[in-house]
Amino acid sequence: MLVEDSSGQRLKPALGAVMSGSAVGLLLAIPAIFAAVISSGAGHGHYVAARALFPTSMLLTLLEGSIGVLSVSVALLQFPVYGGLVAWGFVRKTYIPAAVAGSLHLVAALVCFAGTLPNFS
Fold it and tell me: Which domain holds residue 88?
């Protein structure tokens, strides 16, 4: 049985693509998280990699007061979500969701580097 959305397109290939894209995103998240941890310098670093790669998580520290459970959870999900969006867009032949996510990432990173965040050391 084929599952179709409201426009009549099959959903099964899209689901497989999203799963594959999320897996690739997870693989890319590993070195990104490593770079972010290294840039933190055991709490006394500059956090440049963390601010560039995980700006949403870093901005959430304004709510939490430090890098807490919410920030870490968002960071762990970020790259798999990006991978899923790119793969879904590839199958559906639209890159708007991935472009919006990328644009929001860029804006959040600019805010992170604009002096909004305190130094956590």
Answer: 12-116
